């Protein structure tokens, strides 16, 4: 049993139904499993995950705070909107009921990080990515001029606010590649994302009768749509292998474009079970990003559950995934790799070798114990 501590969460982590919140939920779950005695502070807002008794399984005490939505007023604030909208005096009052350490689960939760009343507390911050870099990347792909302006403005505020990290007791970086950036403020530790650990069960080597490549993701996210267009424009026309593109809410433009390319199939809004089968039975999971921020949880899932995995270099993290996946950036090289791997059965021996490397970094129990040691 560890000493008691606080966690401040930027959003309701249950159900863990989008990328950013998966780490938050499974971190809570495994910290509790490994003996953590947790006072949990959780923000929520209308139209999203509501407060739930599910979290009571993992917390000794839990407080909920409604996130502020006076957008006009908060946008004019010098602080980033994602921080200013989580300013709640009750949170400070509840944090001051004892002298236990505090884990700020994301820069968004750091409104009170340097408040005088918390001056002598042990404070550790979870860094999910370099937030301003993430926002500038979103702005780059955003087509709506108003949204683009807002994202750039918020990015500049986050860049300035990040200096609040100076002198904290520790920073937990999701990505190894971000450690040199955060070291300027405090001792930084590589603690990869927590996730739903579902190791593949082998009933014999899987090799589909009609082997295919799979690209999957939330297709309503601009970055994922751009990656899909890259496959349609640069990969599919020179590739003989069947390609499946699967994900939520594809645009009409993407739907129509896919209809014109004979070796590409769209699977729109698949159920969770269908998506699991698509990932597991794909001979190749093809994953691309054009924004090198954080760690893509869909890559972890493909490594744990899938066969061959091809990524571009921006999906990598300081060479960690290069040891487990095929890394290619140029369309011709990617197609060459597809043509090669589509014919090579992915065996249990290959999986075991890959998983041994994977579990060195991505181990929920080991990483929970590490955080508890720091707290």
Envelope shape = globular
Largest pleated sheet: 7 strands, parallel
Order of strands, main sheet, comes to: 3-2-1-4-5-6-7
Estimated helix fraction = 25-40%
Rounded mean pLDDT is 90
What letter string, H or E per element, gives the SSE order?
A: EHEEHHHEEHHEHEEHEHEHEHEEHHH
Give the low-confidence spans.
none
CATH superfamily annotation of the largest domain: Glycogen Phosphorylase B
Rg value: 22 Å
Question: If you had to describe this structure to a student in words, what would you say it looks like?
Answer:
With 375 residues, this protein is α/β, with parallel strands linked by helices. The protein has two domains: 5-195 and 362-374, Glycogen Phosphorylase B (Rossmann fold, 3-Layer(aba) Sandwich), CATH 3.40.50.2000; 213-346, Rossmann fold. It contains 14 helices and 13 strands. The protein has helices spanning 19-33, 71-75, 81-84, 89-95, 131-141, 145-161, 179-182, 222-235, 252-259, 272-281, 297-305, 331-341, 348-361, 364-374, and strands at residues 5-9, 38-44, 61-66, 102-105, 123-127, 170-173, 188-190, 213-216, 243-247, 264-268, 284-287, 308-311, 326-327. The strands form two sheets. Strands 3-2-1-4-5-6-7 form a seven-stranded parallel sheet, sandwiched between helices. β1 (5-9), α1 and β2 form a beta-alpha-beta unit. α1 (19-33) packs across α14 (364-374) and α5 runs antiparallel to α6. The longest helix is centred in the middle third of the chain and has 17 residues, at 145-161. It is globular and about 65 Å long. The two termini are 12 Å apart. 42% of the residues are buried.
């Amino acid at each position: 049993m560890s000493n008691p501590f606080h966690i401040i969460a930027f959003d309701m982590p249950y159900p863990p139904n989008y990328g950013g919140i998966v780490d938050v939920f499974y971190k809570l779950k495994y910290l509790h499993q490994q003996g953590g005695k947790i006072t949990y502070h959780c923000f929520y807002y209308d139209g999203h995950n509501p407060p739930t008794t599910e979290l009571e399984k993992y917390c000794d005490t839990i407080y909920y705070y409604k996130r502020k939505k006076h957008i006009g007023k908060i946008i004019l604030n010098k602080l980033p909107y994602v921080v200013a909208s989580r300013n709640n005096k009750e949170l400070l009052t509840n944090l001051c009921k004892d002298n236990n350490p505090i884990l700020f689960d994301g820069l968004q939760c750091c409104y009170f990080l340097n408040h005088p009343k918390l001056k002598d507390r042990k404070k550790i911050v979870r860094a999910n990515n370099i937030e301003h870099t993430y926002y500038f990347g979103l702005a780059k792909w955003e087509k709506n001029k108003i949204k683009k302006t807002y994202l750039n403005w918020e990015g500049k505020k986050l860049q300035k606010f990040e200096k609040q990290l100076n002198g904290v007791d520790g920073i937990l970086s999701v990505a190894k590649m971000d450690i040199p950036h955060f070291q300027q403020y405090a001792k930084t530790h590589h603690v990869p994302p927590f996730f739903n650990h579902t190791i593949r069960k082998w009933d014999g080597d899987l090799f589909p009768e009609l082997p295919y490549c799979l690209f999957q993701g939330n297709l309503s996210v601009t970055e994922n749509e751009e990656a899909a267009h890259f496959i349609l424009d640069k990969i599919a026309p020179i590739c003989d292998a069947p390609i499946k593109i699967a994900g939520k809410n594809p645009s009409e433009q993407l739907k129509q474009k896919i209809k014109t390319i004979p070796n590409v199939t769209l699977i729109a809004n698949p159920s969770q079970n269908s998506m699991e089968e698509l990932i597991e039975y794909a001979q190749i999971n093809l994953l691309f990003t054009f924004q090198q921020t954080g760690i893509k949880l869909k890559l972890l899932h493909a490594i744990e559950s899938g066969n061959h995995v091809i990524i571009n270099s921006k999906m990598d993290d300081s060479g960690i995934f290069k040891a487990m996946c095929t890394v290619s950036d140029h369309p011709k090289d990617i197609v060459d790799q597809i043509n090669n791997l589509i014919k090579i059965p992915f065996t249990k021996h290959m999986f075991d070798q890959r998983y041994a490397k994977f579990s060195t970094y991505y181990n929920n129990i080991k990483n929970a114990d590490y955080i508890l040691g720091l707290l």
